[in-house]
Design goal:
By secondary structure, the chain is α/β, with parallel strands linked by helices. It has helices spanning 12-19, 23-29, 38-50, 57-64, 80-95, 109-119, 135-142, 164-177, 193-205, 220-233, 244-256, 276-279, 289-306, and strands at 69-74, 99-104, 125-129, 146-150, 159-162, 183-186, 211-214, 238-241, 266-271, 283-286, 312-315, 318-320. The model is unreliable at 1-7 (pLDDT under 50).
Amino acid sequence: MTSRTKAGRATIHDIAADLGVSVSTVSRALTPGGTVSPETRRRVEEAAGRLDYRTNRAARSLSTGRMHSIGLIVPDLRDPFFAEVAKGAQMRARSVDHTVYIADTDRSAELEFEAIDMMRRDVDGFLVCAPLGDDDALREHLRGTAAVMIHRELDGLPSVTSDLASGIAQAVQHLHALGHRRIAHVAGPDSSWGARRRRAAFEREVADDDRVLLGPITDPFEGGVATADALLASGATAVVAYNDLVALGLVTRLRARGVSVPDGMSVVGFDGLDVATLATSLTSVAVPRQVAARSAVDLLLRALDEGGEPASVVLPTQLIVRDSTAPLLR
């Protein structure tokens, strides 16, 4: 006789009986980081699915002292970049039976801190994506809580970032190969760690006499629209935008001014968003957003299970050449 609940749902005792293994083996196999062989974990997970097993979260929280939930802090879910980070985090967390609670901070450092303080009692740890708060304040609000930074480095905490410098270098080298020499960069907000890194990389790649720096801007699309006239006045023949939404704003205004993209101005975005291929076929540096989120979930669970020194992961970026860049017309 099995020990199914009144609702007819299987328990770990049913799985153990079905497989002929101990209850403790099943428990370890269903716990992220539990010490069982990959083959045993696979057999247990298959049996759990076949028997319609569902974890009793309340009981598991009492036995483990863990909530099995993660807090994700993002600046703006209207931005497709952060929406994809959220999707990647949810998919990975769900696969290991964790829940993700998401806070959108409306690009406010103050709301970042408020969200962390409000959520910390209900989650085991945080994924903090592209935060705008300064280092010391972030450390203070995250003190005593496991956390992983996404698209931001912070001494003493694990992080998942992308190779922004390589991405900018790929973009500039592409434009140089097309004959462009006077190249502009539309920078993101100074409060953004990623924006500062992209601007610094651009300054290293483009000589002083050939370089045009515009911005910083805070509202990506509208900022791109507002900056296009200054771009045209600068004499630049190509531009590397802070991100794809800025690039789309530039393209919108350039076309309204009767300027052909790419013949009148070559435009490169950054992030590789799918939406950038809908409005225009945008050349862009692709950043692995969902991979970054999944990696961050794994780092957080590892930190919760094992502790140890904080780890950092740097993911590669790749230039995707499309129709918004072309050889310089002489």
